[in-house]
What we know:
The chain has about 350 residues and is mostly helical. It has one domain (about 10-354). The protein is built from 15 helices and no strands. About 50% of the residues are buried.
Amino acid sequence: MAFSAQNRKGTLSGIVFVALFAMAATYIANLAPIHALGLSPLVIGIVIGIFYANTLHNHIPSEWESGIVFSGKKILRFAIVLYGFRITFQQIAEVGMEGFLVSAIMLSTTFILGTWLGTTIFKMEKDTSMLTASGAAVCGAAAVLATEPVLKAEGHKTAIAVSMVVLFGTVSMFLYPVLYTTIIEPATGFLHMTPSQFGIYVGGTIHEVAQVVAVPFSIPNAPEEMANNAVIVKMTRVIMIAPMLIILGLYLSYSAKKEGGDSSAVKLVIPWFAVYFIGVAGFNSLQLIPENIVNIINEVDTFLLTMAMTALGMGTRFAKFKGLGLAPVYTALGMFIWLVLGGFVVVKLITAIL
Length: 354
C-alpha cells in the first residue's frame, strides 16, 4: 500500500518530487515563446519526466517510486473528475444539434479508425492503438490520460500516444489558418465555409483545447462566432469522453468474457471517475460556485494533470519503445488525414441538412 506505515514517507517524498517537476513544467509553459506555440504544461511535464527517466532515474531513492506511481494513477483520476468544472451543459446546448452531431461522429469514427489502423494495419498492440486513437478522437493529452486507467496500460504507451497528439495537434494549429485564408474563407475560398461552420470544423477535428483556442486567434479579423463555436464544440467532445470510456469498459469486459469463457470470473470495467466527471460537469452547469472560484479549481486541476503527466513520463524508458518503429506515426497520420478531410465533409453535410 502506498500509504502504509513503511511506505508513507517514500510515497510523500515521491509526490513532492513529482510536484516540483510539475512546477517547473508550469513555469516553462508560461514563458512567452513556449506559450506562443500552444504547448500546455501537460506536454512540458511529460517531456521533463521522460528526460528524468532516461538520465537521473538511478540517482533517486527507490522508495520514492510509490509516490511517482500514485501521482500517475490516483492523482490522475481525481484530476479527470475535476476537469468537469471546465464544462457546462449550457455551453453544449448553445451550439445546438449541429455541433453535437459533428462531435459524436468525429469522436466515434476517429477512435474506431485509429484502433483499426493501429492493431490491424500497422500491427501495434491494442493498448497503444486505443490510447493514440483516444487522443486524436477526444481532447488530446487529457483524453489519453483518462483512457489509460480503463486500459490499465503501461506508462510508456501513454507517452507514445501523447507524443502523437503533440505532433499532429501542432501541425493542425498552423495548418487550419492557412486552409481558411486560402481555400475556405467565404469571400475568396474555393471550398467556402462560413465562420460559424469553420468554428464547428475546428472544434470537431483539432486535438487539444489550447490548439482549438489558438486557431481563430491566428486568423486576421476572425468573427467572434468562429471562436465561440470552436470552443463549444470542442468542450462537447471533451464531455463525450465519459460515455466513451463507459462503452470502452463494457467492450473490454465483453471481450474478456468471450476470450476467457468463464463470465463469472470477469469483472465489469466501469470507469467511475468518468461518471463522476459527468456529475461534476452537471453540478458546474448549475453555476452555484462563483466564477473566480471555478477558475482557481481549474488552475489546480491543470497542475494536478501536469503532475500525472510528469509521473507517467518518469516511467517511460526509451528501451521500451524498441520494436515499435513508425507504426504510431502512421496510425496518427491516418487519423489526422481523416480529421482534416473527413471532418470537412461531415461538417458541410451536417450543417447543410440542419
